Amino acid sequence: GCVVRASVCARACAGCRAMGWSKGMPEDDWQDQKRRNSQASVEGRAVYVRGIPPDWTADQLQGFFSLHGEVEGVNLLPPRQKQPARAAFINFATEAEAKDAAQVSDNTEVEDISGKTFRLSCSLKQAMGKKVDYVSGFSDLSKARQEDRSLYISGLPSAYGEEEVRVLVEMHGIVENIRMLPHGAEVEASCFVIVSTSEEVVSAIEGLDKQEIEGHVIS
């Protein structure tokens, strides 16, 4: 019995350390971390992510999700036995950023260092101790990914918006939706585009990849 309890305790402590709640931290810092994680969950600013490559770090996750808003904290959970992928909670500055990140990133394919493919599953955590409110599979972009009807375009001129992107892609298919990703004035624009069929995705990729627009090479 003692061995079992010790094992459970060890796993719990490992989980706390991975989430930044380690008792090895100064008490004030530990309590502050708990408070910030709890507040993010209550306010709907915490995104629960599964399917993370096992070799990804918290810094990589922060860089990946910073495309969708200000990331306040990354809590990478410890790996589980017989489960190659990992999970994490990503805390955003606002509820809108968290929802956008969950919807845009859900069902996204990513790779580990060896090139093995993993598929992210993103959902919103509504409150500490409560079940995760899944958005997986419910956003238009998530559904389009599952049906191979979405494409990602990067390298666009920074001044480009939905109207300019629509003109580009409509030469290759029917555009159902465009989601521009946040970017600075001096940074190239990027976006996700949903079209009506997977064949139109292939046509758009073949027609647009490596095309030069105003000195920018898009991909």
UniProtKB/TrEMBL annotation:
Keyword RNA-binding in record = yes
Question: Which key words are in the record?
Answer: RNA-binding
Q: Which GO terms describe its cellular component?
A: nucleus
Could you cite one Gene Ontology molecular function of this protein?
mRNA binding
For this protein, the record's PROSITE patterns field holds: RRM
**Does the keyword section mention RNA-binding?**
yes
Tell me any Pfam family this protein matches. RRM_1
All copies of the RRM domain together span 45-125, 149-219
Could you tell me the superkingdom of the organism this chain comes from? Eukaryota
UniProt organism field: Alexandrium andersonii
Quote the protein name from its UniProt record: RRM domain-containing protein
